[in-house]
Automatic annotation (TrEMBL):
Transmembrane residue ranges: 15-37, 43-67, 88-106, 277-299, 377-395
InterPro entries: CSR-E3_Ligase_Protein, DC_STAMP-like
Upper classification of the organism: Eukaryota, Metazoa, Chordata, Craniata, Vertebrata
GO CC annotation terms, alphabetical: membrane
Keyword Signal: no
Record carries keyword Membrane: yes
Species: Leptosomus discolor
Protein name: Osteoclast stimulatory transmembrane protein
Record domain Dendritic cell-specific transmembrane protein-like: where: 231-423
Main localisation: membrane
PANTHER family reported for this sequence: DENDRITIC CELL-SPECIFIC TRANSMEMBRANE PROTEIN, OSTEOCLAST STIMULATORY TRANSMEMBRANE PROTEIN
Amino acid sequence: WSVYSKPVPANGRELWTLFLQCSCITAVIGGLFYNWMFASLEYSWHLSIAMAVSFSLLLLLTLFLVHPARCVFSIIMPTLGTKQGRKLLLSTCIMIAVVNITPNIISNIKTILQVIKCICKNSSESLLNSTALLETASWEFGDAIQETGHAINIHRPMNGHFQFSLLKNSSFIYQQMRLTGEKIGRDFLAVEVLVKDSVRVGNKLVAGFSMLYLCFESAWYLKNYLTNVRFDNFYITKKLECLAVDRKAAYLLVGSSKNLIRPTGLKLSREEVMLCLVQAMLLTVALMLMLVVMAMDHFAFRVADTAVRKAALFSVVPVALSIKYSAKIEILSFLWKFLPLPSKELPHQYFERTYQHNLTFSSAHCRISPPTPPNPSLLLVTGLLFCILYATIFLETYAHRLCRKIAGSFFKSWEEKRALYLYKKLSRKH
């Protein structure tokens, strides 16, 4: 660390040591950068490799040649434990939800629509087939009426059959149903693509902005550290303790223990505790939204699974068409009582038949994709990420303290000036 934090290496051995350190750091960071771009941000592999190699070479030259850049890069590491690091982890959680949970929800919704489409198709086919039953019944009933007309010679109807306008070709209905199903499928696909593309673009913008702001925040911290002796200067450091002991003023540190904090201690000030609680509440809101998305995934799967199982259990509905027809013909029957005409036995027609038909709502020939269950590992990964996020809330204060310690190790002479300023400030107050 002493070689790494030195402004200029003292000899050739330290120069090669620094180069080896920078090379190892850039190799690890380049691999992580490639994995982040390819797996999380979903860039193409060749673009990810090109960006990772270019970034690694540029980082190697910058770390090896520029001393303040090494300090800024070192400060970035603990800064990942602050709100900027939480933004990156949240973007990772969002990408997990978009890439894995959202397509699963849409797939289960498609399964539900396929069940509805199957029921509509089979019921419409069965209903269209029932028109043939009506045609048969009407034709036989018309024959019975014709027989009644033929039984007497006074009047004969031209045709006793009923005329039905039946749809014998159901291809038009099937075509309309197919077009409707394709339109619904295209609409769902368009929504799925739109949601994925929007979240991908938004996540890439957030991730890029977070990385840039992470570098900017580290550089801003180092700039304030080097230009303002009052900035982040309320810690009881070893240099301050040595200075107080040398000047026989150790009582200053004891009397100011309420206002000063030891950087290696676990004590949190009241302001730091309140800030942690506020950050935890905001993170809880994000956690609730993520749980709502996961609950929607489980709900869609349960509905799709129930729809598929219930559709397979739909029974056949029997339909019976019963026709009862009775005809008795009497033509001025009272004349037969007065006129000496031979009696004529009039016909009495009776027609009774029942026609059976079954309405079906489901079929084994329907193409229904099985419902996709939620991935239990996603819940584990998301829970682990949010545990890390909650941990970073309470570790953020210690990350800031580590940033100050890193800056002090890179600029030891300036750290001595800051300790002297704080000592004089305590002396004036005393």
